[in-house]
Amino acid sequence: MVYIGVDLGGTKIAAGVVNDNCEILYKDSIPTGASRPAEEIAADMAALCKSVTEKAGVDPADVAWIGIGSPGSIDRENGVILYANNINFLKTPFAAMLRAHWDIPVYIDNDANAAALGEAYAGAAKGCRDAIMVTLGTGVGGGIIIDRKIYSGFNSNGAELGHTVIVADGRPCTCGRHGCWEAYASVTGLIADTRAAMLAHPESSMWKLEDGSVENVSGKTAFIAAKAGDPVAEEVVRKYREYVAIGITNLVNIFQPEVLCVGGAISKEGEYLLAPIREFVERERYTRYCKQTEIKIASLGNDAGIIGAAMLGKSV
Description:
By secondary structure, the chain is of the alpha/beta class. 36% of the residues lie in helices and 23% in strands. It is built from 10 helices and 13 strands. It has helices at 38-55, 94-99, 111-122, 181-185, 187-200, 206-209, 221-227, 231-255, 271-284, 303-310; strands at residues 2-8, 12-18, 24-31, 63-70, 73-75, 80-84, 89-92, 106-110, 131-136, 140-146, 149-151, 259-263, 294-297. The strands form 3 sheets. A 5-stranded mixed sheet has the order 3-2-1-4-8. A 5-stranded mixed sheet has the order 11-10-9-12-13, with helices on both faces. A hairpin with a 4-residue loop joins strand 5 and strand 6 (80-84). It starts with a strand and ends in a 6-residue tail after the last helix.
């Protein structure tokens, strides 16, 4: 049998045919058109799923199910996307909408959970029973795998890793709280810190790097300048790593996963990012005298969402 994994995003829908070895036989993507009615998005998704099946040379009868990783809050038991602000879904029975076009089982879970499952099945945490994936992007997301299944609490909405507080009464977060890990360890937080450091230090080489405008700052700015020896950028990067490490230490102390892997745009910094984080966790962790969590860079990139979504039927 084979499985179809779909990574539903605000900009594009990516889908792939995946076999039992977690190999993607064929994948493709289409624009989401997020402002459209959900029924139209479901129809286009079904057409994409049928297209990748045909182009993979697979008999549709051999497709066991379709799995979807979606942003937002999910009622996975009933296949309902409760809320996804960047696609404008609200209590949308998306599984039923998709089944109207292809009557096979459809599984839906949060996209970060699906990516974590992909890494557990085929990526940096392959072979592990217990693993965590942290995604450092516009926000901080992630997924928790326990006994090779997604952990999401009694209401399918657990594992909001970015919305644990690391600084009491700290920065405002988009969720309405203050001091959330996401407000400090996301790319958004890194950009804010980089801009603040530049404004406080007009001598920093980051000004030249970004053509004299803080509006040009990206998540790469401080890392590029730090590697070139800019002390202002080095301090931004040092503090950013510390923010990331605080949250990771908390996760390690609570869950003790075999592997914790880090994905998202900043993960491309590799060991320049992770080596100091490991040192911090080594100092700060509670469990100093037993087996230790391995902290790694996630390895599947954008394929994690497709593979993990395809494996959702094995995680129920």
